[in-house]
Design goal:
single chain; 169 residues; alpha/beta; Lysozyme-like; six-stranded mixed beta sheet; two-stranded antiparallel ribbon; 27% helix
Amino acid sequence: MELTLLPKWQSRPSPNRNNRPNGVRVTAIVLHADAADRVDTSLDWCRRVESKVSYHFLLGRTGNVFLLVHPDQRAWHCGVSEMDGVRDVNDFSIGICLSNKNDGETFPAAQLFEAATLCSVLCQHYGIPLDRITTHADIARPVGRKTDPKGLDMPQFKATIRALSQRRL
């Protein structure tokens, strides 16, 4: 079944992607923060071949959603990583980046709502359970190498996803 992309999602294709390994399904979502002052800075960086980095989605502070890599493809967002004993989390995850300085900057309500909505859509489409939504800080290796998204209240964020998913049923 094809993932229905929402009309408000803006396409900004990144070259920093490849095919997922044969037989590998999407089973997780990894949340990031870009550590940038402006979403345009991150969009530009992720669309440069030399950066060798991208996310599937990048969300601006006002809640605008940019699709960089289709979730059926493998984006290069995790680097050296491990989740539940499995290495190379890029193989089986979708990367969602919140534009945020990652220095204690508050995540705006509009951005968090759109991120939760996006996660709800992706969880339903791919059958991803809430306990498979994680942060870059939690899966990066060695442990402590990454801190993003610093300050995100994961229990509250997952509660919002749960509520949105129940409404969609």
